[in-house]
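debug: dumping io for the single-chain case to check the tokenizer round-trip. Nothing else runs in this session.
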Amino acid sequence: MGSTSQKVVWVAIIKNLNLNCDISFKVEFLFEVFSKMCLGTTTMTMQEKQRILENEFEAISSWEDRYNKIIQMGKALPPVDEKIKHSANLVQGCQSQVWIVLTTSQNGSIHIEADSDALIVKGLLSLVLKIYNDSTPQEILSTPPSFLKNLGLDSHLSPSRANGLRAMIQKIIMLSLQEMNKQKS
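debug: decoded output
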């Protein structure tokens, strides 16, 4: 991982960030992430993105506070062009209206734009975008969404919201598969 003095510095940084986590367990992972950031290598794997999101929510003990955080994340979701809001981009299986569009950058990573007419769903979309955005189709297809279980979303959302969340992820996976097949052609 690095020298002992580097570890001490990272432990101090992590404590000051108030991550409310077991320092000895997570220092190595956070050292790796911060090192990438300092070296200008900001691309993270989906597994790293999931761990960061899980750490962020781990500090929030009550589900009411977690829901509030998800709603705030939805409010912060960037607005999308109204042109994406048509039936071809609708996610089937969601109680609310949800639109998802994928575009591919020159380096092959996927950029996702999404919106919903319901604030809590926009928050769930924000969680999904934190994990899937700027990943390659191959990574999207090969990385299971462990954050759903690890955050407790699978057991704390209503059945219709949980089904909708799974439908959003399935649409991203399906579109990523289509994009990967295009890239192979």
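debug: round-trip ok. The radius of gyration is 18 Å.
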